[in-house]
Amino acid sequence: MIRFRLFKDKTARLSMLGITILSLGFLLLIGIGLFYMSLPILREKETWKLLTSSNWKPFKGEFGFLPYIISTLHVTFIAIIIALPFSLLTSIYLTEYATEKIRNFFAPIIDLLSGIPPVIYGVWGTLTIVPFISEEIAPHFVEFSSGYSVLAGGIVLSVMITPLLISIFCEVFGSIPKEMREASLSLGATKWQTVKQIILRKSMPGIIAAIALAVSRAFGETIAVLMVCGNIPIIPSSIFDACYPLPALIANNYGEMLSIPSYESALMMAAFLLFIIIVIFNAGSRLILNRIERRYHV
Amino acid sequence: MKLLEEKIFKALMLISAFVIIAVVGYILFTIVSKGIGSLTWDMISKGPGGGFYLGKEGGVLNAIVGSFYLVIGAVIIALFLSIPVTMYINFYLTKTSFFAKTVRFSFDILFGIPSIVYGAFGFAVMIYFGLKASLFGGIVVVGMLITPIIMRSLDEVARFIPRDLIEAPLSLGATKYEMIKILLRQLMPGITTAVLLAIGRGIGDAATVLFTAGYTDNIPTSLSHPTATLPLAIFFQLGSPIEEVQNRAYASALILTIIILILSLSARYFSRKLSKNKV
Amino acid sequence: METVNLDQVETILENSIIDIMTHSDIINPHIRVEGLNLNIGENHILKDVNLSIPSKKITCIIGPSGCGKTTLLRSFNRMHDDSPNVKITGKIFVDDENIYDEKAQVISIRKKMGLLAQRPCPLPMSIYDNITYGPRIHGAWQRRKLYATAKHYLSEVGLWDEVKDRLKASPGHLSIGQQQRLCLARGLAVEPEIILGDEATSALDPISTRKIEELFVTLKKDYTIVLVTHTLSQAKRIADYIAFMYMGKLIEFGTTDQIFNHPQKQLTKDYISGYFS
Known about the structure:
The structure holds 3 protein chains of 3 kinds.
Chain A: H1 2-44, H2 47-52, E1 56-57, E2 62-63, H3 66-97, H4 100-115, H5 118-141, H6 150-174, H7 178-186, H8 191-202, H9 204-220, H10 223-228, H11 246-253, H12 261-291
Antiparallel strand pairs in A: 1-2
Chain B: H1 2-35, H2 41-45, H3 61-92, H4 98-112, H5 115-128, H6 135-159, H7 163-171, H8 176-204, H9 209-212, H10 230-238, H11 243-276
Helix pairs in contact in B: 1-11, 3-6, 3-8, 3-10, 4-6, 5-6, 6-8, 7-8, 8-11, 10-11
Chain C: H1 6-17, E1 31-40, E2 43-53, E3 58-62, H2 69-76, E4 86-94, E5 97-98, H3 106-111, E6 113-116, H4 127-137, H5 143-156, H6 160-163, H7 176-188, E7 194-198, H8 206-219, E8 224-228, H9 232-238, E9 241-246, E10 249-255, H10 256-261, H11 266-272
Parallel strand pairs in C: 3-8, 3-9, 6-7, 7-8
Antiparallel strand pairs in C: 1-2, 1-4, 4-5, 9-10
Helix pairs in contact in C: 4-5, 4-7, 5-7
């Protein structure tokens, strides 16, 4: 009887360990797999050229990733610029000023915002942001814009990363001990001064980590951005131009162009690029956030 | 001066909080007002009929059912992976274990990997094995996407299991495996919350299923059939030049939003219950 | 010429009559601790503890908080097995079997001892399932037998009449005192020989505390009972033997009378009279 129970225990332990190791290996597997599949193009062309050329003519065998990389960076940059002040101010408000009641009111809203699927954001963007840009904003600056643009992508993305930023900011601010606030307040500082000089300064690493996470989320966002960006492989010259971020490139072309082998490999390389950048950003920010002791639940 | 600054920034904070609420309201309002007009009973009770993509009758039942099939399968896979991992690192390993930290860390990273990478990688592997886009492929890839989500929220609750509850069965002479079976009962509300969150994420994700699950007008009857999914139904219908079809995309978006709303609210309900139910 | 006070004479006389005993005088101890050292990381928590616990008596371990009494108690049923950085050397014999021997089977050792924790911790299942959980994992399966077990042990802790109509209900609705008795019954149902109590009444109200104490006194005819307590009055009320610990060392062991009325060590004297706690 005891022997049977111990046997069961041992079997359970070993299979759990097995599954754990398996899933640990999964991360490596994705990385190695993507690298392996992008090898053909990496062998064929110089990596540096691939990254810095803006010639994208798959049928002639030219694969310059620059327009896609620039597009991704543009869209992400705009998204962060818009989302950062709003989420920072809101998080400060929620942790430092708001009452319990307001916080409880806000929680499900943030939940919902992070729960809305990308495709819904895309629908919303095409219905509201895109026409608004083409009819109201762009005419002041450029002759013509369809609205499907860097700016549209940036705005939609900024809404999508806001809940992520707010929840990490709130965690980071919340991890600062109460005594520090009280010490500052008792010296006659106003609440805002306390926030500025104590809270923000102390949370700097956490804030940076949160931004890095948001950046990597923005890099990888596909459907919503694809729906509002226009998807023209040029280097955008203004924020009202269409653009073509990396994930959209993969989504639009993968699965269809498999007859051209180096094309497939080029798309895999795009995926590999995304993977590497995002893993690096994630690893860095998780290291920082884990050091701030609490666990972050995003 | 000090007070003026305080006032300005407080006003700015209030404004940004209101902006966020307003944006959420605006998104919901847009989806509802655009979708409600075309949201008929047919939309949710019928699959696409003949000439559906030209604006004739039919609905997106194929996509609704397909999405649920897909996500249920994915949740099963994800639970099968994430429960053993969480139990192992929390109850077989010690708090300071380097291995446990490594596992957590790599799940944090898996959590951050975008769905398009999962989708592209998954499809490449499927091609390698000669598999066609199918319900099975979609299930596996969405399963990969939501495993880290479930694992992380499970880990969150497993960490806070009181020591007494771990020791009670052990002191009665239970093996660790028997103890874990007890702890899983205690974790039930946590698992439910995690699953609801993951369903929400899985059901709404388009990039994972874009290549791997395919698209079809029929409700799949086998794992090897391709399947329609709601996000792709929205995406494809929206791409149509015909107005009726576009309107149906809005109605489908409304359906998806309602599903997400229900999931999000019930997840919150269960996580509340979780905090109340501590023995 | 020195005058001798009559009181002093009495004390001197009494001291000479009383048998000063130590733990090595215990014949057939149920638990025998030999040279036990326990480290957590750099901290030396238990320092060369030697102790014998008499069979079918109540032994209370007392001492100021942080003295290692709970750590000692938990080492009796190898509860430190899963704690990181814990290093144990020395031997603990239970029924003449060294429980830290490599061949020792931890689940059979734990089955021999019921542990009553500081706060009651019912398992997330019904009252009935709580009681029968132990027997079930150890192989009992006949319904009638399990029911009889549940009834027997619930009666033994005086809970049967209070819960017999809601055996299938969750124990969450019981009072905290009832929950603690439920936990005691759950521990007894695996038929242990020893009951370990880790400040088992510290979370309870005085009436529930009294009930548990009375239970211990009745149970000692069948079980060896070891209790960690930080209330001296509790030790005085129910203990047969007392072990006094300080800073990880066992300072003194003796009968309750000896420790309270004729302590041999200055430290014990100071602790008993409340100089420190």
